């Protein structure tokens, strides 16, 4: 299930000191150190033309959508998108810029980044629609602007969420790092070694026993089993997953649930974060609590069942529409301890009073 716990962000290592005896000028401020086998380096940060209200890095990367991006500065994150190794950071005015560490093509790297960030979808327009239907969302959005849903590679997203089943952030990250290390090495940034995500062909060479030795437990059989099923697809597993972007949500969920270890909740995560199914609602205990508190108070105290999970998803879609998954993402982020600190104390005082009033009724 999607791990909606506060991310444990790795502490970046300090830049290496120069090795030669001749003094060298320091690198530009906030520019991560770079080392790679065969890099094609670029020497400057480039504006992405996205404001913080359209993309907040701390509200997007360490909130359970992906486990492959590393925090390499106070407002800076580094990761791989295909064969491209990039960093993103906020400037003093909140705008976002990017830095290419290595890539086969600078233009391809930017296109891949824009696609990954789902920049074709305007958060401002979505937030306006959501706010018209929900006064509470209006208040939250003032303090949590820029929480964007990513558009990840489906194979990468699928494997990450197979690792997330009944797991915690620390272990998930270690498992994902292990799988990632099987891919092509792209470079090292602030002490983090980063790789292109391995292909299905490469993953098919990894045995269940090898994964178990690496600490995957019962998830090892799900990963190897899923890779085997995908490898048997006539047009290839990667292409089969991409084809699910063209299906209705129900059909995409059903197709994903044919894979070993994928249930409705994990399928909804994959659908939302990689398959353009913007109204997919991954329902776990945290989302259940949000729903019973604000959308379906009559179900408070009930036990979450598959039938009620469907009812929760319907309630979100009914209130927020075709991009309900984006609204649910922000509402969930607001419940994370790390993000509650960003909200004024009076907001939660009001929430507590409302909760107490409902209990008395």
UniProtKB/TrEMBL annotation:
Q: Which reaction does it catalyse?
A: 2'-deoxyribonucleotide-(2'-deoxyribose 5'-phosphate)-2'-deoxyribonucleotide-DNA = a 3'-end 2'-deoxyribonucleotide-(2,3-dehydro-2,3-deoxyribose 5'-phosphate)-DNA + a 5'-end 5'-phospho-2'-deoxyribonucleoside-DNA + H(+)
Q: Where is the composition biased (Pro residues)?
A: 12-32
- Chief location of this protein within or outside the cell: nucleus
Query: Which intervals hold domain HhH-GPD?
Result: 163-336
Keywords in alphabetical order, please.
DNA damage, DNA repair, Glycosidase, Hydrolase, Lyase, Multifunctional enzyme, Nucleus
GO MF assignments: class I DNA-(apurinic or apyrimidinic site) endonuclease activity; damaged DNA binding; oxidized purine nucleobase lesion DNA N-glycosylase activity
The organism's superkingdom is given as: Eukaryota
BP GO terms, sorted: base-excision repair; nucleotide-excision repair
Report the EC code(s) recorded for this entry: 4.2.99.18
Region (Disordered) spans which residues? 1-41
Record's GO cellular component terms = nucleus
One short Pfam name that applies is HhH-GPD
Subcellular location field: Nucleus
The record's section on PANTHER family has:
8-OXOGUANINE DNA GLYCOSYLASE (PTHR10242), N-GLYCOSYLASE_DNA LYASE (PTHR10242:SF2)
What family is it from? Belongs to the type-1 OGG1 family.
Q: What is this protein called?
A: DNA-(apurinic or apyrimidinic site) lyase
UniProt organism field: Theobroma cacao
């Amino acid at each position: 299930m999607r791990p909606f716990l506060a991310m444990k962000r790795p502490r970046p290592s300090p830049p290496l000191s120069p090795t030669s005896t001749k003094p060298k000028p320091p690198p530009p401020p906030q520019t991560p150190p770079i080392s790679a086998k065969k890099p094609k380096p670029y020497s400057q940060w480039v504006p992405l033309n996205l404001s913080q209200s359209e993309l907040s890095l701390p509200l997007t990367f360490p909130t359970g959508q992906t486990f492959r991006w590393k925090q390499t500065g106070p407002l800076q994150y580094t990761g791989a998108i295909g064969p491209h190794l990039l960093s993103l950071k906020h400037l003093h005015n909140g705008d976002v810029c990017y830095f290419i560490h290595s890539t086969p093509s600078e233009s391809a790297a930017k296109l891949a980044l824009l696609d990954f960030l789902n920049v074709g979808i305007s958060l401002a327009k979505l937030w306006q629609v959501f706010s018209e239907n929900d006064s509470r969302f209006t208040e939250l959005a003032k303090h949590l602007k820029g929480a964007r849903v990513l558009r990840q590679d489906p194979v990468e997203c699928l494997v990450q969420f197979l690792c997330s089943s009944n797991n915690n952030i620390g272990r998930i990250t270690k498992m994902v790092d292990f799988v990632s290390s099987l891919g092509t090495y792209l470079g090292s940034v602030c002490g983090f070694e980063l790789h292109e995500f391995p292909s299905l062909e490469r993953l098919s060479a990894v045995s269940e026993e090898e994964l178990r030795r690496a600490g995957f437990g019962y998830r090892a059989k799900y990963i190897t089993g899923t890779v085997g099923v995908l490898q048997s697809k006539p047009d290839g597993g990667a292409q089969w997953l991409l084809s699910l972007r063209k299906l209705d949500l129900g059909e995409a969920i059903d197709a994903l649930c044919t894979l070993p270890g994928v249930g409705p909740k994990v399928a909804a995560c994959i659908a939302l974060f990689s398959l353009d199914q913007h109204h997919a609602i991954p329902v776990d205990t945290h989302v259940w609590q949000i729903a019973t508190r604000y959308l379906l108070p009559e179900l408070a105290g009930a036990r979450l069942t598959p039938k009620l999970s469907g009812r929760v998803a319907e309630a979100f879609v009914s209130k927020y529409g075709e991009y309900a998954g984006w609204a649910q993402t922000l509402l969930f982020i607001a419940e994370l301890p790390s993000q509650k600190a960003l909200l004024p104390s009076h907001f939660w005082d009001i929430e507590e009073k409302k909760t107490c009033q409902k209990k008395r009724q």
